[in-house]
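User: Need the bound-state model for calcium ion:
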Amino acid sequence: MRYPNGPFYPGVVIEDGELVPQPVETIKDVAPPYFIGTTGIRLSYHENHPEGWIWPLADMADDDIGITEWRLTETPTDNNGDPYYYIDNEGTVYMTAAGADGEADDFELGDNHWKMKLTISDASGKSTTIPFYTRVLDSVDESVHDEVPVIDIDPSGDNLFF
Ligand SMILES: [Ca+2]
Ligand SMILES: [Ca+2]
Ligand SMILES: [Ca+2]
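Assistant: Bound-state model below.
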């Protein structure tokens, strides 16, 4: 028998007191992954971070079954920011060596902000994409800063960069 009011475990039912695995096909991945309470993300941080500086975004998204991929992509109409950042499939952003050695980590060198897109996908191939912007801020004393970046949500347009 099934426990009508018991906890629900995807892929398992309780029959005669035993946990019985169910065929994988019974688990339906019906909805695309989604970001929680935001339609866009911007990271603002002071210059002079080391390579490998990270910011975890995993708590900002969810899915009915599970997110299997996080991916940064370039916005074609803007400058080339995606080599400066890397995101793993756990949703953690890393500053790359190219980012730490270049304009993405030096306010006085070149551009100070970049427009990208962030895509999350699930195992059934459904995905959601939102704007992902970054901005490097000035540090007057040029010393290394290791504080966490400020994260802004709901960016809505080009007037973010002021
Ligand atoms: Ca899903
Ligand atoms: Ca500098
Ligand atoms: Ca500076």
